[in-house]
Amino acid sequence: QVAAGVDVVLGDGYSLSVEGFYKEMDNVLEYLDGEGYTNPYKDWQDKLAVGTGTSYGGELWLKKEKGAFTGWLAYTLSWSWRQFDELNFGERFPYRYDRRHNLQLAGTYTAREGMTVGANWQYGSGEAISLPLGVARLADGDAVNEPWYWRSDAVLYSYYGGRNNFRMPDYHRLDLSVNFEKPKPRGVRVWSFGAYNAYGRRNPLFITLSNNFIFDEDFELVGVEKRFEQFSPIPFPIPYFSYTFKF
After folding, report:
1. DSSP assignment of 196-207, as one string?
2. H/E element holding 240?
3. Which residues lie closer than 8 Å to 195 by C-beta, 6 or more apart?
4. Structure pTM?
């Protein structure tokens, strides 16, 4: 692992940090194709492939620490790869948490004595995930002549183009806050109000794959459409308030 960086004081409360890094990893683990933690009939060692990993990139951090407005900007550009002889035909592929861009902007403004307004915006490239490119129906001898065969999901085969061949939608959200601070005889009282995910971004937690069977007017199956559905647990702003007493 190698890392190098530099810190620069720019004056007027500004400072800048820049860093680059490179890291190699051995004995990283990944599930073999078709395996998962739910299979009770295999030892965990038989479900895993052992390989290598590489990550590298750069980070930039700009801060302002003086004045009515303070804040910072942080940006990371990075790559993270995995390679296994048993997976992806031996070709390297992006790691699940290979997020090319990560950006965070944070600012606090002192509107008047005892009152501050804050905002924090986060952005990140989507995670790398494996999704099928298409679907095929497997022939199984005389079963193709049975009505259940054409209506059964059990004989559908999804084929993939490679490990982590797609990206989740980018993640971003805005958090807002207002704080009212007032000295008291035995401490300091703070009222806080704000909202998480202020503009209601539908950030995905995961994507599921479902089948939409297509029938003709005689109720004969003529095709199967794969449908990707995004699950977003919090697709709306979440307001909050709190009371704190510091002594």
Report:
1. ESTT-----SEE
2. strand 238-246
3. 175, 176, 237, 238, 239, 240
4. 0.81
For residue 26, the enclosing domain spans: 1-98
Phi, psi of 153 (to 5 degrees): -75, -15
Is the domain of 93 the same as that of 11?
yes
- For residues 128 and 180, state if they share a domain: yes
DSSP letters, 7-73, are: EEEEETTEEEEEEEEEEEEEEEEEEPTT--TT-TTS-GGGGEEEEEEEEEEEEEEEEE-SSSEEEEE
C-alpha to C-alpha distance for 189 and 244, rounded to whole angstroms: 6
pLDDT of residue 169: 94
Q: What is the DSSP letter of 100?
A: S
Does residue 127 share a domain with residue 112?
A: yes
CA distance to 118, 233, 242, per residue, from 195 (Å): 11, 16, 12
Do 124 and 245 sit in the same domain of this protein? yes
Model confidence at 138, pLDDT cuts 50, 70, 90, reads low
Q: State the number of CA atoms in the 13 A half-sphere of 217 facing the CB.
A: 0
In this structure, are 119 and 74 located in the same domain? no
- Say yes or no: 61 and 167 in one domain: no
* Arithmetic mean of pLDDT, 11-26: 95
Answer for the pair 14, 67: CB distance below 8 angstroms, yes or no. no
Give the residue among 26, 24, 22 at the shortest CA–CA distance from 3: 22
Question: Domain check: are 179 and 160 in the same one?
Answer: yes
Determine, yes or no, domain membership for 52.
yes
Question: Of 63, 98, 133, which closes a domain?
Answer: 98
Span 224-239, pLDDT tens digits: 677 888 899 888 999 9
